[in-house]
Amino acid sequence: MKFCSECGQGVTARVPDGDTRSRFVCDHCQTIHYQNPRIVAGCLAVHGQQVLLCRRAIEPRRGFWTLPAGFMENGETTEEAALRETWEEARARLQQQELYMLFNLPHINQVYMFFRGELADLEFSAGEESLEVRLFHEHEIPWDELAFPTVGKTLKQYFLDRQEQAFPVRIRDILYRPGQHRR
């Protein structure tokens, strides 16, 4: 960040009085510009023994499979964001959705939240951000073609939990280690 969004003057990275972290502070109006993690919300949409996946039409990871998800917008709840993204990417509607997985990704300043729910009907199709959308049985999932670690971890946990028919909210951290490929 180079300029203040309040007055347009230059900013300096420093630790403000009473704080413990470096922030961008306006040298003119003294506005402190906080930068916080972004929330990604999405859905694990199920129908019987199948799950709904979307093949990405956009970068990053164009052509890879994912759960419908995206960045939360101001003015919406996490559940609203997840349902909106599911509609935008898969033209799918859910019912009886509940929070299922939460991932902390501090190395990229993101938090992922996946809701699990039943498809309300089978009238889904690819939205603008998807090349195709389809239902997969567990043995059909293209495991080597999944877009993000959060997707694979969510699917694997779901298939384990499905055996017991118990779906508690699960919280996981995905930590980057030097020398490891970031995704």
TrEMBL record:
GO terms for molecular function: hydrolase activity. Keywords: Hydrolase, Magnesium. SUPFAM superfamilies: Nudix. Residues 36-159 form the Nudix hydrolase domain. Gene3D superfamilies: 2.20.70.10, Nucleoside Triphosphate Pyrophosphohydrolase. Transmembrane segments: none annotated. Its cofactor is Mg(2+). The keyword Magnesium applies. This is ADP-ribose pyrophosphatase YjhB, NUDIX family.
